[in-house]
Amino acid sequence: MSAEAKAPGMSIFFVMLGLTLVGSGALVAFDAAVARWPMAASAGWGLAGLLGMGAWLGARRAFHAGPHAFFKMIFGGMLIRMLVLGLALGLVLGFDWLDTFGFVGGIGAGLVVFQAVEIMGLSQATKKQNEDGELKPEVEHAV
């Protein structure tokens, strides 16, 4: 998280993009005349994928910031994503546009998967930079 640290690569972004497209495409392939939940689950999975890709791009951008700015950017991005998620859930629960259980299930599964991919990508990038000697952990002590 120093000025000379190299940001994590875009490979995780493309993994998330692939997961979003394949997951949503597979659920859309179900016959909507039989059940409404696959289309709703596809929408939930897609929203979770977009939120995950936004989180990854925000983490890449915040990686160059100092430790205090890094945490502000990460938690600020988290707040924005949770507000978008709450708005989407409110719209789906308030109106009968999509099957509620399918949408919530798609978002729930997607958030877990995309969060795991993001954490894996960030930990791999940090581990690689620690091996290269570019990133030194900063330790701050309370006074």
**Which class best fits the helix and strand makeup?**
mainly alpha
Number of helices: 4
- Please state roughly what percent of the residues sit in beta strands, choosing from under 5%, 5-15%, 15-25%, 25-35%, 35-45% or over 45%: under 5%
Secondary-structure element order, N to C: HHHH
Description:
The chain is 73% helix and 0% strand. The chain has 143 residues and is mainly α. It has four helices and no strands. The chain has one domain. It has helices at residues 11-28, 37-62, 67-94, 100-132.
Task: Please render the helix and strand layout as text.
Blueprint: H1 11-28, H2 37-62, H3 67-94, H4 100-132
Helix pairs in contact: 1-2, 2-3, 2-4
What brief labels describe this structure?
about 140 residues; mainly alpha; 4 helices; about 75% helix; about 0% strand
Write a compact overview of the structure shown.
The chain is mainly α. It has helices at 11-28, 37-62, 67-94, 100-132. The longest helix has 33 residues, at 100-132.
